[in-house]
Amino acid sequence: MSTAFYDELGPVGRRKVRWATAIGAGVLVLLVALVLKRLADEGQLSAQIWGVFLNNPDLADLILTGLVSTLQAAATAMVLSLLVGTILAAGLLSDNRFISTAVRCWMEVFRGLPVLLLIFFVYLGAPAFGVVLSAFWSLVLGLMLYNSAVFAELFRAGVVSLPRGQKEAGLAVGLTQGQVLRIIQLPQAARRMLPALVSQAVIVLKETSLGFIIGYTELLREGRTAVEYLGGQYSIAIYTLLAVIFVLLNLMISAAAAWLDRRR
Amino acid sequence: MSVVFDNMHYFVAGLSLTLQLTLISGVIALLAGLIVTTMRVSPVPAFRGAAMVYVEIVRNTPITIVFFFAAFVLPQIGVRLPYFTFAIIALSVYYTAFFAEALRSGFNSVAVGQAEAARSIGLTFSGVLSLVVLPQALRSSVPPLINVVIALVKSTAVASAFGVPELLTQMEHLANAESNAVLMILAATACIYLLITIPAGILATHIERKVAFAR
User: Fold this and answer.
1) Res. B215 pLDDT band, cuts 50 70 90
2) Is the pLDDT of residue B110 over 90?
3) How far apart are CA A201 and CA A211, in angstroms?
């Protein structure tokens, strides 16, 4: 697609591209050199700082504990969001106008709020009803309130995109509305929306990092604890590690989805 | 209810900071996003690669980590700025990638024939882009761009954990001070966010329909 914006390059064009590449690389090298110099001036490139992972076996334990907590919260939130999202989608597609309007309003409200506010809603709001929830459940339920609305919208879009005949054929052989949705429409919708569902799964994993704000000891919280214990000069090394872990996890989710997609 | 009205000035102060965060980082990220998108479709392979790597890394990193880098790592290398500026940096760096993706979807929506026609009358890459593709792409980019702005409004709430007294921070203070009216305060805060995000969402859908109809 992008090749449509310029002609096949001739000798002059190729020379220009070489120049642009050289200048671009030069600017990049200059930037990297400036950052490295800054880091070196502040003593941030020493072997002591980047060796922190080798010299502190406790640190590896801490990060690993955090990683497990992050994955637990993400997996629980994912499963609950998918379940509630399916129920909401069923309500949204219901022929009963009252139900579908009520569900639509519910979804618009929860999709329109910051996830962090929803987490606080559960965390601060539940005690007002006499229920005290742990940080884990506050985080998971907050994520669920938001993401179930997103999943429901994805399922709805998937079902609506199916040919009408699918539903009509299902009804014609005597299935009920609910059976048509469950046996015929939702499985196909889920397949059609797979790429969008996977990118939402990546978002759920990223959003578990908000748990550190309410004191859930996930990856970021453990990293922060480590930095507070070891000293601020270690923040670059440790936070870089956290970023790398998140990027790798999310790339793995996307790769797994692509693999599943190819196999089917 | 009176709790909310008695403390209205806190909500207004918070909302004002939330809007400032959105506006400033939104403008920066939109302009930077336009540069990143241009790099992504440019004839120079190195630019295409660099832009892609940037977008992929940012999209797979939680915004909280970007805030960590802005608020905790920058001071370590001698950059000392107010928390508000750190929040602007974090939000701009993060949302550049999302604005870039929204713009790219707009570029892709322009019919291939448009760019081909522009090339056939002898326009170069910059001419094709600035005279033919971009003016049409901006039009169909508006709905996805509005959706990114909605996400940005919601993400400014993360700044509350990093010392910026925006809407969510004010809510936390009030909830601590008036612990018997927590639900009222939470509901009022939610309403303020919804007053921004729901009309914006309706606007996006409306424009999407108009643009789709015109094509």
Assistant:
1) low
2) no
3) 16
* Average pLDDT estimate for A234-250: 92
pLDDT at A1: 43
Question: Which residues in chain B have Cβ-Cβ distances shorter than 8 Å to A38?
Answer: 77-78
Helices (H), ranges, chain A? 11-41, 47-50, 52-55, 57-92, 97-111, 115-125, 135-161, 164-172, 177-179, 186-192, 194-207, 219-230, 235-263
List of chain A residues whose C-beta atoms are within 8 Å of the C-beta of residue B41: 2, 5
Q: State phi, psi for B100 to the nearest 5 degrees.
A: -60, -45
Backbone φ, ψ for residue A95 (5° rounding): -75, -15
Question: How many beta-carbon contacts under 8 Å exist across A and B?
Answer: 161
- For residue A190, pLDDT beyond 60: yes
Chain A from 100 to 159: CB within 8 A of any B CB = 108-109, 111-117, 120-121, 124-125, 127-128
In three-state secondary structure terms, B166 is coil
Reading phi first (left if > 0) and then psi (alpha if -120 to 50, else beta), residue B124 is in beta
Regarding an ipTM greater than 0.90, the answer is no
3-state secondary structure of B72: helix
Quick check: A73 and A136 in contact, CB under 8 A?
yes
The answer to whether A59 and A52 have CB atoms below 8 angstroms apart is yes
List the 19-48 stretch of A: residues with Cβ below 8 A of B.
20-21, 24-25, 28, 38-39, 41-42, 44
**Which residue among A17, A44, A207 sits closest to B77, beta carbon to beta carbon?**
A44
The token pair at B68 is 């960590």
pLDDT at B101: 93
Q: Return all residues near A72 (Cβ < 8 A) that are at least 6 apart.
A: A136
